[in-house]
Amino acid sequence: MTAQTTDTTKKPRLRAPKLVINEDELAHIEALAEGAYQRNPTLADRLLDELGRARIVKAAKMPADVVSIGSSVVYRDETTGQEKTVTLVYPENADISRNQVSVMTPIGVSLLGLSEGAAFYWDTRDDQRRMLTVIRVQQPGAATTPAPGPDTLGQNTPGAT
Fold this sequence. Notes:
By secondary structure, the chain is α/β, with parallel strands linked by helices. The chain has 3 helices and 7 strands. The chain is globular, with a radius of gyration of 20 Å.
């Protein structure tokens, strides 16, 4: 009797990172997911699964380092080392030429609710699995902190020695 071997190669699994969703955005995102069932049931299921496991918080309690609608996000593709900055938006505001990514895209679903430092797998439209890490999250209207340089170190400030 010979044993048959079956190729059970699976894509690597990473423990799903914790998600936090703004309560004010939840109804709109759920409606988008439900409306997407006809066009893209896989994406709609994934979004609803993510919403189902997320911690829902009031807007005032939303952590500043968590990706929500309107957040600018810097993430790194761990395969290539390339960093990219995008803003997560509703579909009606998406504009890839301005790096405005819809929450109703695979990368948008993957980013929603993640905090800085979270790593996650993302399946591209070409069915390639990529590992991405959230480097920085900036909320709309938040001031940016300049990188240290001559102007921020006081070297070009009048009266500085």
